Prior knowledge:
Order of helices and strands: HEHEEEHEHEEEHEEHEHEHHH
Low-confidence stretches: none
Largest sheet: 10 strands, parallel
Strand content: 15-25%
Distance between the termini: 43 Å
Helix content: 25-40%
Shape: elongated
CATH class of the largest domain: Alpha Beta
Radius of gyration: 23 Å
Number of strands: 12
Oligomer: single chain
Number of domains: 2
CATH architecture of the largest domain: Alpha-Beta Horseshoe
CATH topology of the largest domain: Leucine-rich repeat, LRR (right-handed beta-alpha superhelix)
Amino acid sequence: xxxxxxxxxxxxxxSMETDDCIDIADFIQNTDGSxxxxxxxxxxxxxxxxxxxxxxxxxxxDAVPFPSLxxxxxxxxxPFNDDTPFRGNAATLEMLKIRLSSKTVSTLRxxxxxxxxxxxxxxxxxxxxxxxxxxxxFSSATDYMQFALSxxxxxxxxxxxxxxxxxxxxxxxxxSSYDCIQNLTLKDTHFSLWDALALVKSLPLLxxxxxxxxxxxxxxxxxxxxxxxxxxxxxxxxxxxLFRCCHITRCVSPVRSYFASLATCVLLLALACPNFDYAVVxxxxxxxxxxxxxxxxxxxxxxxxxxxxxxxxxxxCSSC
Length: 320
């Protein structure tokens, strides 16, 4: 850490993987206890080789060590007992990756690091689930989503680890207040087609959606499977959205029926969203999805739109 301190006035990028949290103090403090300032530092990555049993917390009252910071990664339990790494760089910070734990969440909340108008240039936020059961930190999925969205409220690219599985879907209406989102990843979250359509409708700038799985879900009352395409055409017309791609990840090997259901969802999304171009699954399953799409396109309900829908095959294959 001494080398970093000696070059503090010119250092622009610094990454540290440590097995001793005291290294953090060596990085931000001089031997006399004063703050080390890094006026040119743009990128800071702090990671732990292993979890500390009782990590020490460091902070420097009123110090502004990183005034030009653009990218901050903290990949272990928050090592500061205050807002030290966030001071003075609200206007410059663009990218944040931070692992959530009870200490991290309580510190960010108590110090009011993020407000509805803070960090106007933040464009990328990734919140990573800690190995602890952080479900104990939040009272509900809605509480969790409110916190997650408050971190860099104007960020257009977001990755949120879900710890409540499908429960996070109940909190999706909150997203309508964050209509700047263009690329959204909700890990370990299972969507129905209707959840996806509601989300796209509430986020007009959304281009790419990354979720774990997608299925039809419960059919609307009075609508049969053979009527789905007509129902979507007449009920959903998302002409003003930019939605073009849905990425689907699945942890277990899907069976053939899954791809038939997924293909139906993809085609119905394409009917509702004129800009929808392709769906992406894990590479090893790409051909299965393409085969299922090709069969579905020729079925009643989709055949009348076949010329437009066939673009999904070509664009989809090139994206795998």
